[in-house]
Specification:
The protein has about 325 residues and is an alpha/beta fold. The chain is built from eleven helices and twelve strands. Helices cover about 50% and strands about 20% of the residues.
Length: about 325
């Protein structure tokens, strides 16, 4: 064997020794899961992120986590950019709480086309928009209509037929806002209360405050306000106090954030609904990891995995 042949033989032998190991390392690389949430100014999503980080810490050998959120509930454009960044980063799975049920569907399709497993949490992507794009995305989360009806039913016990009530809705283009409004309306219909207005508070404290103040001014005989989340309920608490109507206008919220608890205790808020923020992302991550491990195509995923909701009162 000449020198050149020996060099070729040695190189081939080295390649045979290295390549199987490299292939094995590649195949055993941990999946990378991206959690993309809505506004981290909302305590609900901070709780969600904390729950996800605790889960990853306990399962550090199984997957890596990238967690992102946006500055406020309407920052849809930035959320789309974050998803695009995750596609470039070649994550294995995307667990998303979309800021808008329709606007995020095109970029979700882009992620699926890139071979990323996508799981939807918190706010359901629009069924018609998904169908139009020809994609299937499983939803892991609560029945928002059922949860809102729990709070509405509890409030209804203190109302009489014909009493005027108002609903402060979240971002109106989101399915969870629409479903919570429907749940509130279901409960009010059952007791014969009169829903005089439904207005969006954009999920935010300041907007909730402005809307509640406007409602109290336009309807001085209003008996109750049903807020689609606790942030808007916090804004409504301040508006009720400013209008001198403490104890005269009943209020319910949704989310059971820490800031609402003293208000439940002293009666400024009658009830809220816990949808277990810290567990929602975990449920989504576990669903995504299972699909990745079993090498399931996105087209085989779909349907709804319903998570629990609980009424929280004083």
């Amino acid at each position: 064997m000449n020198k050149m042949s020996r060099r070729h033989f040695a190189a081939a032998a080295l390649a045979c020794a290295i390549l199987p190991g490299a292939a094995m390392a590649q195949s055993t690389a941990k999946p990378k899961v991206a959690l993309v949430m809505k506004s981290l100014a909302n305590e609900f999503f901070l709780n969600m992120e904390n729950g996800a980080r605790e889960h990853q810490k306990a399962h550090a050998g199984q997957y890596d986590l990238i967690a992102n959120g946006i500055k406020d509930e309407q920052d849809t454009a930035n959320q789309i950019k974050i998803v695009e960044q995750m596609i470039v980063s070649k994550v294995s799975a995307l667990v998303i709480a979309p800021a808008d049920s329709k606007a995020l569907v095109p970029v979700v399709k882009k992620a699926i086309d890139a071979g990323i497993i996508v799981v939807n949490i918190d706010n359901k992507l629009d069924d018609a928009a998904l169908k139009e794009k020809g994609i299937s995305v499983p939803f892991v989360g609560p029945d928002n209509r059922k949860g809102a009806k729990l709070a509405g039913d509890y409030l209804g016990k203190q109302l009489k037929q014909g009493d005027k009530v108002a609903i402060i809705e979240g971002v109106s283009t989101t399915v969870n806002a629409q479903q919570r409004t429907l749940g509130f309306q279901d409960a009010m219909k059952e007791v014969g209360a009169n829903v005089v207005t439904v207005q969006s508070g954009q999920w935010e404290i300041d907007q909730g405050n402005k809307v509640a103040a406007s409602i109290l001014n336009a309807h001085p005989d209003i008996k109750a306000i049903l807020a689609g989340n606790d942030n808007m309920a916090l804004g409504a608490v301040a508006a009720i106090r400013a209008a001198g109507k403490n104890g005269k206008v009943l209020l319910v919220g949704y989310d059971n954030i820490t800031a609402i608890k003293p208000m439940l205790k002293d009666g400024r808020v009658l009830a809220t609904v816990d949808q277990y923020a810290s567990q929602q992302a975990v449920n989504g991550i576990e669903t995504a990891l299972k699909a990745v491990a079993e090498k399931k195509p996105q087209s085989s995923l779909g349907g709804i995995v319903e998570t629990k909701v609980s009424l929280i009162t004083k």
